[in-house]
Each structure stands twice: as C-alpha cells, then as structure tokens.
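thought: user wants a sequence for this fold. calling inverse folding tool.
action: design(structure=
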C-alpha cells in the first residue's frame, strides 16, 4: 500500500466503480471502464471485460524485465487495434513485417484482414525501431516524428493529456455499412433511419433545460409547455449538413472487384426547420430526407450512372454557440434586465441620507478658502435626487453651480463666471479651490 502508483490505481478503481453505479442508478445506463496509467492502456484494458464491467492493469510497469505487465498485455493486440494507429498506418506496418501486402477478407464489408500481425510481431521484428518506422510511415503530409510516436504506442507509452470534456461536440455523425445498397428506395429508407438518429442525438447533445421562460399566448405553444418535462432551448446550432458515401468500384472483367476505402461527400446548409420543437422527430426526419439529403445524394450519385454503396454517413457540423446567433439566448436583452437585480444585488451601494443635498440657510453666501460652501440666507433648500454616479456633481461643481445661481456676475470673487479669485490674488477654476486651500494650510 506504500507504492504510489498502486495506491493511485486502487483509488481510481474505486472511483470508477462509484461512477458506474451512480450512472446505472440515476440514468439506467451501463458502461465499461479501463484503469491504467495513460490513455492508451486505459482504452485497451477497458475492452477486456465487456459489457458493464471494469478492468485495472496493475504494476509493475518496468517496460524492461520479465515481470513487466505492459509488454505481455499489449503484445497480444493486432497492430490495427492500437489507438492512434489508423488503418493506413497499420497496412504499411503489416506490409513491412510480412514483406508483402496483407490479404483482406473476401467479404463485401470493408476493413477486415485475413492476416493478423500482432504488436509483439512488430516490436520483435529485426531492426525495428523509431528510425525504421519513420522510413515506413513518413512521407508527404505526415507529421514530423511519426516513427517515434508510433514506436511509443507499440510499447504502451502515451503522454497525451486527458482533455476537459466539451459542453458542445464539434460535430455529430451517424453512419452504417451495407452489404449492398443500389436502389433509390433503399437509399431513402436508410437515409431516414440515419436522419432520425441524427436528430435524436442533436436533441440530446445540443439542447438544455430552459431556465427562465414565460407561457406564451399561443395555445399550441402552451400545450407543448404543459408536459411534465421542462421546456428546452438550443445551446448550439450546426450550420452545415454533410452526406458521405463509400461506393464500391465496378467489377473487373474477371469478376473480381478492387478494394477502395475512399469516401466522397457533399455538404449544404442545415435547414432551419430541424430546430423546430412542435413537430415530431419522425416528421422532421422525413422532411430532412426529402428536402436536403436526397438532393445531396443525387449530386454524389446521378441515377443514370448507378451506384453500389458500402457505407453512408450523415453529419451535423460547423457548430455555433447559440449566444452568437441572431435571436440566441445570449442576446436576449429582456432576460438580462430581468436577472440583473439578482445578479447585482451583492454589489448594490446605499448612500447616506442627505449626502447629496445642499441646503441654503441664513444671510449671504460666500466661498471660503477651504472650498466649503456656507449659507446664512433664509431660503429653501437646494435638493435633488441623483440616479447614477455620473449624475452626482463633485463639491467644487456644486459650489460653482450655487455661486453662479446666487452670486450673479457682480460677485467680486467670480471671474468671467467660471473662475475663482483667492484672497491671495490667485485665479483658478472652481475644481481647484479645495487643492489650493490645502496648499494654504500647509504653507
């Protein structure tokens, strides 16, 4: 128990179990968890016991001696199953180890390989290392240092930081693969299934409970709001709708078919009706297929030329926060004013009574050397309520205003109505009277 890595893995295991049970109890969802010292090993070890279970890869993590637990664990994985090594990189590594291209299965679904090349086979291959992998995998368009990065993944090393979860996904994408898809009726049917799933995901990932709402005068809207669930609002809007397909190449004269992993896609603006909340998901999905997805599909695959698809993908991309959209919640100024009293209550300041009032009493008024205003005239008080800090005059401004109103232009201490003459003979603006008086007091 004194071993720090072991203790951290133990605490992580207890935390994972707590979260899994909490998720199942409150949301009725099950999940599988992997616990290790980096993201790579956690992903791999999480696949060991599925579904609804968790696995911890225990020390030692020496990466050197025979007691190491990492090497035997990762060596039994196919090279294409390592996170961070995509299909194209895996093909190049397999071809180098086998000294020929790896054979794929003869089925119509792409991606499978008949020849399994394990991580252990790659690591133990003669001369294999970061430099060799750089030569195999490097080239135009590949990042610098891809050989060292891949070699680290093959040895269970991954320094990628665990990122903070995003409130809004960058895109929402749904796809499915097919044995054969070559008629328009089948395409419409599959597009409807994908569109309905996409809309359901958008409602889950891009909507939140409305915190501040009022019942509308519209009876139909009130009926929608009267359900048990709270009203929802969009927190982000996808601007772009994308359709992607993967066509199969035509057959060769001998009946064989070349393999191709290439995808083609077309994009268009996301129609505004998908953000409506009055119609059901099925109604919106049917309209989305008819007005947006089918036209995009026809641009990709004109009917005259025919097609045979192995995959279709529908995605909502180009997410924009609702606050930056016209009419978005972030620009609803009425809600801002409704909440300002609650938000700013801790910053309210109360001014003492009569702090802004100036009363005139007694006979003649004079401006003293200290800049204070005294009054001996019998008259009414000069009072006023000010609404903000910019409306509150300074003492020198009040003295200037009172002097101009009551003294008149004949007062010997007022020069041109804007300046004050001190008894020492100095002439100054009224705002400088106080500072000049303090100068007299110090001299």
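)
observation: tool returned 443 residues.
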């Amino acid at each position: 128990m004194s071993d720090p890595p072991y203790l951290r893995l133990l605490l992580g295991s207890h935390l994972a179990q707590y979260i899994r049970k909490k998720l199942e109890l409150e949301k009725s969802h099950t999940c599988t968890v992997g616990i290790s010292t980096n993201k790579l090993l956690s992903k791999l070890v999480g696949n060991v016991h599925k579904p609804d279970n968790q696995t911890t890869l225990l020390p030692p993590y020496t990466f050197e001696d025979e007691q190491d637990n990492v090497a035997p664990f990762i060596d039994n994985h196919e090279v294409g199953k390592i996170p961070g090594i995509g299909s194209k990189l895996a093909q190049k590594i397999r071809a180098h180890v086998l000294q020929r291209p790896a054979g794929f299965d003869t089925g119509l679904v792409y991606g499978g390989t008949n020849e399994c090349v394990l991580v252990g086979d790659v690591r133990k291959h003669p001369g294999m290392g970061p430099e060799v992998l750089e030569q195999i995998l490097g080239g135009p368009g590949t990042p610098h240092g891809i050989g060292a990065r891949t070699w680290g993944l093959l040895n269970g090393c991954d320094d990628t930081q665990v990122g903070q979860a995003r409130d809004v996904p960058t895109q929402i994408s749904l796809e499915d693969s097919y044995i054969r898809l070559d008629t328009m009726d089948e395409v419409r049917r599959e597009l409807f299934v994908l569109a309905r799933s996409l809309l359901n995901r958008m409602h889950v990932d891009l909507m939140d409970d409305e915190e501040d709402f009022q019942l509308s005068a519209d009876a139909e809207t009130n009926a929608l709001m009267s359900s048990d669930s709270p009203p929802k609002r969009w927190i982000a809007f996808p601007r772009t709708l994308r359709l992607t397909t993967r066509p199969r190449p035509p057959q060769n004269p001998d009946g064989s078919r070349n393999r191709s992993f290439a995808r083609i896609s077309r994009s268009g603006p996301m129609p505004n009706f998908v953000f409506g909340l009055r119609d059901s998901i099925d109604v919106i999905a049917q309209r989305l297929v008819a007005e947006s997805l089918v036209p995009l599909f026809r641009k990709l695959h004109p009917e005259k030329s025919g097609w045979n698809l192995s995959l279709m993908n529908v995605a909502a991309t180009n997410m924009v926060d609702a606050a930056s959209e016209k009419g978005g919640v972030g620009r609803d100024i009425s809600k801002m004013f409704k909440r300002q009293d609650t938000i700013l209550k801790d910053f309210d300041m109360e001014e003492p009574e009569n702090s802004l009032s100036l009363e005139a009493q007694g006979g003649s008024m004079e401006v003293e050397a200290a800049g204070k205003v005294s009054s001996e005239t019998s008259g009414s008080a000069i009072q006023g309520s000010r609404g903000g800090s910019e409306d509150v005059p300074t003492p020198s401004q009040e003295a200037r205003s009172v002097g101009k109103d009551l003294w008149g232009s004949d007062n010997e201490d007022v020069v041109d109505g804007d300046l004050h003459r001190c008894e020492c003979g100095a002439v100054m603006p009224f705002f400088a009277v106080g500072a000049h008086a303090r100068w007299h007091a110090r001299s």
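thought: summarizing for user.
answer: Here is the designed sequence. The chain is about 35% helix and 15% strand.
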